[in-house]
Write a structure and sequence with these properties.
InterPro entries (chain A): Cyt_c_Planctomycete-type, DUF1549, DUF1553, DUF2231_TM
Number of strands of chain A: 4
Number of strands of chain B: 18
Distance between the termini of chain A: 49 Å
Radius of gyration of chain B: 24 Å
Organism (chain A): Dyadobacter jejuensis
Protein name (chain A): Putative membrane protein
Structural class of chain A: mainly alpha
Oligomer: heterodimer
Largest sheet of chain B: 8 strands, mixed
Distance between the termini of chain B: 32 Å
Keywords (chain A): Membrane, Transmembrane, Transmembrane helix
Number of helices of chain B: 13
Pfam families (chain A): DUF2231 (PF09990), PSCyt1 (PF07635), PSCyt2 (PF07583), PSD1 (PF07587)
């Protein structure tokens, strides 16, 4: 949108410039009018009545011209900011008030007239005040008052910004410099950095910043008042020289920090620059397990976390809730009534642990559940773009057996990065026909996906240009992508070649080297060898955090793909990751550890808005209630009422022998369809590690009148009618299967009213539908 | 996440400057507010996209060139148009034969003759369609949203019971369905803003009424049962939970839509016979009728497609001439009637209609005239069979588009293509990001609108840089 101010006609300019002169008339005339009215009022006389009226007329006329010229001025000159509209409206209000006062003075509604006159004077005074702020600055008046000599607005800075005399020690100088660079990075780099240098200005290095832009230096060390950068960032938003032109304005504390930094001489410490972005530690770390009564080390860490925050343990959930939770979390299925019964009546003290272990031992059920998560993460699907031209290959049989056999995670990763034919689909990416953006070539897709999925690191920005949100550089991204490339890649910046070939390098050289002259196959093996080293704490923290997030509804770190963010407990994360590498990289063992912890057994918690879960100051108080995934929901329908999918829906990309291993056709094994899509199964074109699980209208429509569910419930009703001709039995059985409990009295009555004495298919289908829509059915609580 | 709302202060600024200055100094309003309106003022509330799927040849439709009738043994290079030209309501503007009805409403809209599709190596329907609908070239590192999803996200539904983004006419059981799915999505915006599909407009009612075989009484009773069971079940212990709340709320919305009087709009059988007959040229025509009825009830974004299926519809790899006779029959009446109906009911003022295709076609040139790309079609230089008479190759450099209503100029023509082969754009080239930005602008959505995904601001047009084509707007 252009904010061009066209060159104005001289007359408008002239009239506009009269505004500051004219405004003094209404101010003084109206004030005198009020004063005389006050004199009359105290003397109970009418001596000045005629004079007051004349003053009012003159003052109103003056107000009229002030408003008119003022509006012209506002639009011919570059005024702006928050104060302008207030000033403008106050002026207009004064004009209206003054006119009304004249009108009432004739009618002699004495009280109203006097009140109006007071209001008029108030209006004109305020308008005058705001006008003064526009010309002289907002603290022109208030700045002289003793009470407003406050310290600058509190800022995240640890410096007393008021002091310019006190010496800063080298560490403080570093900190100040980092803060300044952080502000510049977030607000300025996108136009004055590596990619663009608007006005020939770069702000991302000391030399460039000191050199200034096409109009010369942008700052004068020691004098923020004469520094162009300060002037520009302080201008009102709609001023045409205001910076930044795009995005949000700098906050006053940010401006204050820049000002302070310049006044201190714009210090920029010599030597290696410290990063402005947080980068997580790479090395594994084994924190000492805290002392305590809890058996499970996870609980000891949670306990000390609770103590630190003053949080209290609450009683664990009951057996029924635990069973439902652990069934859905580990194998994705609702417990059968019989299974639940056995568990509830088991008296063994360690029965929860026993149950969890039993579930984890159900290799195929486990694989069929976790296939969903890994298909999303590894961008693997049975249909999708790319297959049509052999531009993509699936890894389903490999993945299925890796999960069913609980392949150690280090091997799992190794085989995906240094693949055989069955597992190569992940790093091969999706190849589109025609030319594609350089940042999306398959080698770069591999680099991005390996970084995201295994290292919780975003390389996407850096694959186009140096990242604005991390320290990753374009050349590093290309260096990493080169490992996957058969022929050396040429570096492209924003899809344009820069005339330089990429080197070949690890993202974290401390993990090992990659031989440049080796074959692709050898390079991939080296890469895999390097990445799975126990020294790669990042790889294992990322995995542990993902599993924790799946089971607990929120990771120790969120988003789970940004492992440089801080966890709510570094010790717990580090300990779990370390323990994982020390015990065979065994994902099932990790899961067992988590689901048998007291922390997992705490009552479910919830938030009002999903965004709250992403807050960096999130506090763990227990598992966050989750919605069933599309697949879990479909399976729950299948298991409770009647199978939703026929054998013919099974994807042909599954392992041959799958049919013998499924209790029914599970939704993770079928091709994506309208029903699953509506419930959140993604198009697996890109990596997806967290699904959006909030319900929405399109989903509800699919559930309310979608054919797939409707057909299933019709079929289910038919079968149930035969099996359970007796209504009470039918209702009880449905509650047991769907919710793992018997109905309470009210529920029985309501259901009974619907199904009647002789249940017919429609009534049964309706009851099924209503049960399936219940939050109690659709949530893991 | 960035939300750009019309903010009260901006409004005051604009309004005060305009009205008071006009009052006080009797200046022309427009001059006063120059530089004072940071947010676009919406001139449209609804968008209807009429999608000519498969590549509509400009020289055979809205930009006809010299007509050469078929003769066996003729040189393909001599043929620019396989139809004669017919006059339109605009002086000096002709359309290809078979589009006279649309020609008759061109005084109500703008004809663009200079749309240039991107060069993406091979000229491929699925990639170019992806590009047209998302403004981004595939593949992307994140799932890019369809323009309808952006609009649904930024503006929400116009009428709360009509889904904000409705997609009429496309089935996903045809060839290249997966490629079509890749852009018929809200992508990272979340499926809340995804398309509500009505693959067959004559079955539109089925999407918004109780499942087949369930009468409204039973439907209502089922909902009551659901609500009673919720209230009776011990869900109270779950407290206020966004999951539970969103489940209930979405279910209420679904029931509200399914029970609303507006849902009658989906039922084409209630349309008066004579009107229905004008629209009934097939699925696309009925799609236009459904779009009109939904617009009247407050739809936000509707896409009606002639449906993409490889080698069907506009995707003429042979028999181009005879196939286009059919295609024109399908679109001419309904499109013109849609414009007339919305004009008559006054909805055209706030409804923008865009008719477009992913690229054009030519008999000889594949892709860009000056670039060599892979031939997608077998087309002999000498025509010995009428099946080769037609525009069969994919041409990117001169495509026609129509725009009507919602602030678009009336009786206006923009851009020009050469009169001799290659019939490419020679005046006012138009790119997809300009089209998108112009649509967003008309809807009051600022150009810097973006969504932060994986810490990267993803703009409605790449880098937020799409330029509005001011010439198209009133």
């Amino acid at each position: 949108m252009s904010v061009e101010i066209s060159e104005s006609f001289w007359l408008w300019k002239f009239l506009g410039h009269l505004h500051p002169l004219v405004v003094h008339f209404p101010v003084s005339l109206l004030c005198v009018a009020l004063f005389l009215e006050f004199v009359d009022y105290t003397r109970k006389s009418k001596i000045y009545a005629r004079a007051i009226l004349m003053l009012l007329w003159l003052g109103t006329l003056g107000a009229f011209f002030s408003v008119a010229f003022g509006l012209v001025l506002a639009n011919t000159e570059e005024y702006g900011g928050d104060d302008l509209p207030i000033h403008q409206w106050l002026g207009i209000a004064t004009l209206i008030l003054a006119s009304a006062t004249i009108y009432l003075s004739h009618n002699r509604h004495l009280r109203t007239y006097r009140l109006l006159l007071i209001a008029t004077v108030l209006g004109v005074s305020l308008a005058g005040h705001y006008g003064a702020m526009l010309t002289h600055g907002s603290d022109y008046l208030s700045g002289t008052l003793p009470a407003t000599h406050q310290d600058p607005a509190p800022s995240p800075s640890q410096f007393a910004l008021t002091s310019t005399t006190e010496e800063l020690d080298p560490n403080q100088l570093q900190e100040l410099n980092i803060e300044v660079r952080t502000i510049l990075a977030h607000n300025c780099y996108s136009c004055h950095g590596e990619v663009k240098q608007k006005g020939d200005l770069r702000l991302d290095s000391k030399d460039a910043l000191m050199a200034g832009g096409e109009n010369g230096p942008i700052l004068q060390p020691g004098n923020s008042g004469k520094s162009e950068i300060i002037r520009r960032i302080s201008l009102p938003a709609n001023h045409k020289e205001a910076m930044p032109t795009k995005g949000k304005r700098l906050t006053s504390s940010e401006i204050e920090i820049l000002r302070y930094w310049i006044d201190r001489g714009a210090p920029w410490p010599e030597g290696e620059e410290r990063s402005i972005f947080r980068m997580a530690e790479m090395a594994p770390r084994l924190p000492q397990v805290p002392q305590g009564v809890y058996k499970n080390p996870i609980d000891r860490f949670v306990n000390s976390y609770f103590q630190k925050l003053g949080l209290k343990w609450t009683a664990p959930v009951d057996d029924r809730t635990y069973a439902r939770r652990v069934y859905l979390d580990l194998i994705g299925l609702l417990p059968e009534p019989k299974e639940l019964e056995d568990f509830l009546t088991d008296n063994a003290p360690n029965k929860r642990e026993k149950l969890a272990q039993q579930l984890l031992n159900r290799n195929d059920d486990y694989a069929q559940h976790w296939l969903t998560f890994w298909n999303d993460a590894l961008r693997n699907d049975y249909t999708g773009t790319g297959y049509i031209t052999q531009g993509r290959s699936g890894i389903t049989p490999w993945l299925y057996s890796a999960l069913a056999q609980n392949k150690p995670y280090n091997e799992f990763v190794h085989q995906l990065i240094s693949p055989n034919e069955a597992s190569q689909g992940f790093i091969k990416g999706i190849k589109w026909r025609g030319t594609i953006n350089a940042s999306q070539r398959t080698e770069m897709q591999a680099a991005q996906n390996v970084a995201q999925v295994f290292l919780g690191l975003n390389l996407k920005c850096a694959s186009c240009h140096d990242s604005f949100v991390s320290d990753w550089k374009l050349e590093q991204a290309y260096g990493f992508a080169n490992i996957f490339a058969d022929t050396l890649l040429e570096i492209n910046r924003c899809d344009k070649p820069i005339g330089k070939m990429a080197s070949t390098q690890m993202l974290f050289p401390e993990l090992g080297e990659i031989a440049i002259d080796a074959s692709t196959e050898q390079r991939l093996r080296q890469l895999a060898d390097n990445l799975i080293k126990p020294a790669d704490g990042r790889l294992y923290r990322t995995l542990v955090n993902r599993i924790w997030a799946q089971l607990m509804g929120r990771g120790l770190i969120e988003p789970v793909d940004v492992m440089d963010n801080l966890p709510w407990s570094q010790d717990l994360l580090d300990w779990m990751a370390y323990d994982f590498t020390e015990n065979g990289f065994d994902i099932k063992r990790l899961m067992l550890q988590i689901v048998t912890s007291e922390a997992y057994q705490l009552p479910g918690t919830s938030v009002k808005e999903p965004e709250i879960l992403m807050n960096q100051d999130y506090q763990f108080t227990g598992m966050v209630r989750k919605r069933l995934t599309a697949e879990q929901f479909a399976d729950a329908i299948s298991r409770t009422f009647v199978p939703m999918y026929a054998d013919s829906s099974l994807s042909d990309k599954l392992p041959e022998e799958i049919k013998g291993k499924i209790p029914f056709v599970r939704a993770s094994l079928v091709k994506n369809d309208a029903f699953l899509t509506a419930l959140g199964r993604p198009n697996r074109e890109t990596v997806m590690t967290t699904r959006n699980t909030q319900a929405n209208l399109l989903q509800a429509l699919e559930l309310t009148n979608g054919q797939q569910l409707d057909r299933t419930l019709k079929e289910g009703a038919k079968q149930w009618k035969q099996h359970y001709p007796q209504p009470d039995l039918l209702i009880t059985e449905m509650y047991r299967r769907a919710l793992g409990r018997t109905p309470n009295q009210k529920e029985s009555e309501t259901a009974r009213r619907i199904v009647g004495n002789q249940p017919n298919e429609n009534n049964i289908a309706d009851l099924m539908w209503a049960m399936a829509m219940l939050p109690e059915f659709q949530l893991i609580y | 996440m960035h939300h750009y709302n019309w903010n009260r202060r901006d409004f005051l600024k604009g309004a005060s400057a305009a009205t008071m200055a006009a009052l006080a100094a009797s200046l022309p309003t427009s001059q006063i507010i120059t530089g004072c309106s940071p947010k676009p003022t919406a001139s449209a509330d609804t968008v209807i996209l009429l999608w000519m799927a498969g590549g509509m040849a400009h020289t055979e439709t809205f930009d006809p060139k010299r007509f050469t009738p078929y003769e066996t043994g003729m040189e393909g290079n001599r043929v620019l148009s396989t139809f004669p030209s017919m006059p339109t309501v605009l002086d000096g503007i002709q359309f290809s034969e078979g589009l006279q009805s649309i020609g008759g409403v061109m005084d109500k809209g703008t004809l663009i003759r200079s749309y240039m599709a991107a060069d993406m190596g091979h000229i491929l329907h699925s990639r170019h369609q992806y590009h047209w609908h998302t403004c981004y070239e595939p593949p992307q590192t994140v799932a890019a949203p369809h323009i309808g999803s952006w609009i649904a996200k930024e503006l929400g539904p116009k009428n709360p019971v009509i889904p904000a983004f409705i997609d009429i006419g496309q089935r996903f059981t045809v060839g290249e369905a997966e490629e079509l799915k890749a852009f018929h999505t809200a992508g990272f915006l979340g499926n809340e803003f995804g398309p509500f599909f009505i693959p067959d407009p004559s079955q539109g009612l089925d999407s918004v009424r109780p499942p087949a075989g369930m009468d409204s009484q039973r439907f209502e009773r089922r909902n009551q049962l659901y609500n009673e069971l919720i209230n009776n079940s011990p869900v109270g212990e779950f407290g206020s939970d966004y999951q539970r709340e969103s489940l209930r709320r979405s279910m209420e919305q679904a029931y509200a839509l399914l029970n609303s009087p507006e849902s009658k709009a989906f039922d084409l059988s209630t349309e008066p016979r004579n009107s229905y007959d004008i629209y009934n040229t097939g699925k696309f025509g009925l799609g236009c009728l459904l779009a009109r009825r939904l617009t009247e009830q407050g739809a936000r974004f509707i896409s009606v497609t002639t449906e993409y299926e490889p080698f069907k519809g506009w995707d003429t790899h042979e028999n181009g001439n005879s196939r286009l006779v059919e295609m024109k029959k399908q679109i001419d009446g309904p499109v013109a009637q849609l414009i007339k109906d919305l004009d008559q009911s006054g909805h055209l003022d706030r409804t923008m209609i865009v008719l477009a295709s992913e690229f054009s076609r030519d008999m000889m040139v594949e892709g860009r005239p000056d670039a060599t790309v892979k031939e997608q079609v077998n087309q002999p230089d000498i025509l010995n069979d009428p099946k080769f008479y037609g525009m069969h190759r994919h041409f990117t450099d001169g495509c026609s588009m129509l725009m009507f209503g919602g602030g678009i100029k009336k009786g206006f023509v923009y851009g020009k293509t050469a009169d001799e082969r290659p019939c490419k754009t020679i005046e006012n080239p138009v790119k997809i990001d300009q089209i998108h930005q112009t649509i967003y602008h008309a809807l009051g959505i600022p150009p810097e609108t973006n969504y932060e995904i994986e810490k990267r601001p993803f703009y409605t047009t790449p880098d937020g840089k799409g330029q509005i084509i001011k010439e198209l707007l009133v």
